[in-house]
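Predict the 3D structure for this chain.
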Amino acid sequence: MNIDLDQFRGVFLDEASEHLSALERGLVRLEEGDADVGSLLDEIFRSAHSIKGGAGTFGLDEVSRLTHSMESVLDVLRDEKRAPTSAQADLLLSAVDHLRDLLDGEPGGDWEETSRALVATIATGPTPSESSEGEGPAEAVVSGGFRIRFWPDRDFFLAGADVWPLIRELHTLGEVEASCDVRDLPPLAELDPEKTWLGWDIVIRGEVSREDLFEVFEFYEDDCELEIEPLLAEPVTGSAEAGETTETADAPAVETTSPPPTPSGSARSGARREGGSIRVDTMKVDELVDLAGELVVAHARVSELVDRFSIDQLEELRQAVATLSRSTHDLQEQVMRVRMLPLAHLFSRFPRLIRDLANSLGKKIRLEVEGEETELDKGVIEQLGDPLTHLLRNCADHGIESPELRRDAGKEEEGVIHISASHRGGSVELEIRDDGAGLDTQRIHAKAVESGLVGPDDDLADAQIHNLIFRPGFSTAEAVSDLSGRGVGMDVVRRNVEGFNGSITVDSVRGEGSSFRIRVPLTLAILDGQRLRVGDQTFIIPLLSVVESFQPAPEQVKRIQGRADVLLFRGQTTPLVNLADLFEVAPRRSTEPGSNRRVVVVVETERGLLALGVDELLSQSAVVIKNLEANYRKIPGIMGATILGDGRVGLILDVNEVDALRRRDRGAPVAASPSAAVDRNATYGVPTPTPELQPSTIP
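Done. Predicted structure below.
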């Protein structure tokens, strides 16, 4: 019976990725000294051994050999019940990086050098000649090698086991010669092809420990008879003195000096699926099945009423439709829950990142993590990786001071970076906070003036100066390094975050530290939006961007120096743009008194608040986002589209692009105090006949 192992390769690679993350986390925790060394070493060893076992099954010899070297070091550490030295930790973490590359089908760097260096770190330990006779087999390393007699049980193959992966793994330990033992093979007429009749006589040469060999066969201990004996001298074929069995004509030799052929291509060949995979709790799947059943019942009820509908059944039909709608909504929520993953999947990579940065910068930094159990859509998590990584690098490089400077400032030598996540309504808020030097507003302002981003006489609040770090090309670093100084980074962070409808803000106190807050939607597939009507067109604004919506009083609408309209909102002048003009949509007109007064929706953009003039405020609802560019073309100011309940297309606004369009078409409004603004429209519908005012664009 031939089993195509390639169909299981994707599962192995997903599990190997999780084991590598566990290895990385465990090694960093060992260095921090905040865990039980013995139990943590056991967990790390099991992860490495699981990777090695799976790699042997799929013929990934390079992975097997490297993980075997890691096991050798970890085994010594377990016996001595101590954490790795700094050099060993560096090599083990480097091996993790090489394994990631090898499993991704990449060259994997000079993994062989890392493998040799790992073994060299334990080469100074007790040699076999120095060990006492009473030492157990786990610590005995025999330079000559071992003879292995392996007799699988009759149902060995029926259990899904195979001999070739075992021999492949033995090849990673030393030079192997193997022959079949056919003494139990019955006559052909009595042979059951589903039973196992062959045994194996295997000689492995090299510096091998008995424990290594037992580990190769440990998953099959209950399904075989196994004998492992050391070779006392260089074996001679047929030598009974060497403890070997003389080969006869009844036991033909089958040389396996090289392992069986492995599938061609990289480790990921045929395994990586385009969209990846998600591990789903079976309870979630069960709930999906139940909801699907309720949906089928509700649909059948509606169909039956429609087929025999009469006007006296209208109320019954409404109730059936309401039940169908409720079941659809519940199913939608449950499907979205399937895509939700805890942020621990993302946060797990950061302890290693901070550890390496601290070592390279000569600083002492501790990472604190909170809220890693918070769940977020898999697509959002994937897109958050780069922005969060860049922010953490900035905190370590620019924020946390050197131990000497922290000591002089009366702080602990070890700096702290705190990353947290929590739910805020229909979104998730992440905060990255450090207790470092904080942002230097004077330096930032001076650099902005030098770069021409602001004028030398511009009077900016601290919050406005802090936001200058998100401008393209902005950097205060005096020299370019591997970590900073190229002026490419914080603007990309903001653009990436806003690319999936998120927002980012910064708050800082000089000498006390900085805090970056990122707010992101729970999912990218469905968006909570506020529907608006402009003429005969329906627009949707993401609820995360909406600050307030209301019908303004006439005195709140002003025109600044005849150039642009503004709204007096909370004591400040806020730019006001009419969506009907911006998108060239004919506004709705009515003959009823007061019905033409516009509604204003105030939204938050990357440059500040913006007021949007619309005809009518409709309901709030969740909408499914469709890619407009892929199905039609790119429309400035529009991030996507959705299908409304009446079958028409609704356009989803990108408030940052709307603000950019307003600036391009009209120019940025001149900053002025509310007292400097003149009445724009006495009735917000009938222009005031003032000679110096231009014709209104806001009815």
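The first strand starts at residue 141 and ends at 142.
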